[in-house]
Amino acid sequence: MKKATVFMIIAAICTSFVLNGFAGFDKMPKVYQKMEEKTVNMNKKGALAVIGLAVSSRMDIGKNKAIEDAKKQIAELRKNYVETTVNDFKKEIGVGKGAEIDEVFTQVIKSVAATIINGAMVNDFTYFETKADKKEGSATYIVLYVITPEAMQKTLEAELKTKGSKANLYQLYMESEAKKDHDKAIQEFKAMEENK
Q1: Which of 192, 124, 186, 188 minimizes the C-alpha distance to 156?
Q2: Which of 31, 54, 167, 191 suits a disulfide with 101, CB 3.0-4.6 Å?
Q3: Angle, CA of 100, 101 and 103, to the nearest 5°
Q4: pLDDT tens-digit series, residues 57-75
Q5: What is the 8-class DSSP label of residue 120?
């Protein structure tokens, strides 16, 4: 699963950038380390998972801020995901079939990249208090935010049906190796989730 490895690396880089904002930590608490392990495992399974962090004096506000932080990270990752997962499909269509299909395909991909975050969900939520947090009367909130392979595929298929109907992109996708690869990724993800 080369794609999963690429996204694990990207997610790890995003997480390290987030942690730079929390540079006061010499060593992250165990609750964070456990969340980080879950994130790595979800990415290994083929999902798109990130950790959102926020500091607040109220849990509801802290959770919402952490979700917003995660959404920003996923917004950065989603474009890369869409481009890499559908790249094989675009190659299958081929340039020889005309620029019109390529143009429609590009529009569909941009639309998918813009909407794929709609399938994201909070998979886990926790918090911890550092000494500084306690002095301030606040806590650090952590959210594991995930988009499953199934949610990503459903978004892609919906866009191909509506925006690619003129070029019959949905039918081409349904018969492609890219579709088979996506189905396999979904089944692997479900199997790993059942066996955790």
Answers
A1: 186
A2: 167
A3: 65
A4: 999 999 999 999 998 888 7
A5: -
Alpha-carbon gap, residue 159 to 179, rounded angstroms: 14
Residue 78: exposed, middle, or buried by beta-carbon count in 10 A (0-12, 13-18, 19+)? buried
Local structure of residue 45 (DSSP, 8 states): T
Report pLDDT digits (tens) over 97-112: 555 566 666 677 666 6
DSSP 176: S
Q: Residue 185 contacts by C-beta under 8 Å, 6 or more apart in sequence?
A: 1, 46, 149
26 token code pair: 């010499």
**Residue 77 and residue 175: Cα distance in Å, rounded?**
27
169, two tokens: 């992109």
HEC letters along 21-39:
CCCCCCCCCHHHHHHHHHH
